[in-house]
Amino acid sequence: MSGTDMKLVVVGAAGRMGQTLIRTINAVPGATLFAAVERPGSAFIGRDAGEIAGLGPTGVTITDKPLEAFVEAEGVLDFTSPAASVEFSGLAAQARIVHVIGTTGCSADDEAKFNAAARHARIVKSGNMSLGVNLLGVLTEQAARALGPENWDIEILEMHHKHKVDAPSGTALLLGGAAAKGRDIGLAEHSVRVRDGHTGARVAGTIGFATLRGGSVIGEHSVILAGEGEQVTLSHSATDRAIFARGAVTAALWARNQKPGFYSMLDVLGLS
User: Record-annotated residues binding NADP(+) (predicted)?
Assistant: First the structure.
């Protein structure tokens, strides 16, 4: 660690994504693991974060006191749960640090709280932290704009591992939002999440979502633009959770020098 390394906190440190974040911080120049946080009562409190992540001892002990960690740190990486992320955003605002949020399944009320925290914190939030998916979002917006709703239907298909608790995935919603933006419509009013029974013909201009769950799939997403006699498919396949962790660390390093505010990965990648 050099004196200029960005001091990062990983919350949910013992989870699958938390461990991946710890390994990634260890491998990325310019970042250092400063603290690791787990929920009160976790069996991992007091354990060495590096050992949990399979790195060997790092000297960083897992704690259940996030604010103490945040006040001395420069940024927090957060792939936890909506309620926890809202709490952490408030603490990040108090500490006036960077808060990178990869948590999905957040409500409109949660989003309002993140926006409020962004008056003092530098918040980067995305439904997906990978470079490839964010580029896919840009391409989806362009394709939806070019291929109009009169002749082209949009369907979004996603598959994830059997442990995922929210549906459609945050990434599917990110892609749906990009398609809706391309067509200058609101996603909420035009999305179809469920089809069952006698549905009648497909309503023109709607954006359909299909959700598959099973096995250990990290993330598969396809945007299908279906026209008369032809079909365009844009897709992304994630084969390693580390792509999200690398994106999150990249986001933190980028946000270190920004003004307080609410940012997305498109800002980080210069695609906005």
Answer: 39
On average, the pLDDT of the chain sits at: 96
pLDDT computed for residue 100 by the predictor:
98
Q: What is the pLDDT of residues 9-61, one digit of tens each?
A: 999 999 999 999 999 999 999 999 999 999 999 999 999 999 999 999 999 99
Cα–Cα distance, 255 to 96 (Å, whole number) = 12
pTM metric for this prediction: 0.84
Closest listed residue to residue 94, CA positions, set 63, 116, 109, 77:
116
Coil, strand, or helix at residue 1? coil
239-253 pLDDT, tens digit each: 998 999 999 999 999
164 is catalytic: yes
Two tokens at 51? Answer: 């050992």
Instruction: Determine whether 99 is an active site residue.
Output: no
Instruction: Give 35-49 pLDDT, tens digit per residue.
Output: 999 999 999 999 999
Q: Is the peptide bond before 168 cis (omega within 30 degrees of 0)?
A: yes
Which candidate in 164, 190, 221, 236 is catalytic? 164
Residue type, 236: H
Catalytic residue among 160, 190, 221, 236: 160
Exposed e or buried b per residue across 203-233, where buried means at least 16 C-beta atoms within 10 angstroms of its C-beta: eeeebbbbbeeeeebbbbbbbbbbeeeeeee
Angle, alpha carbons 44-47-51 (nearest 5°): 105
Distance CA 37, CA 119 (A): 24
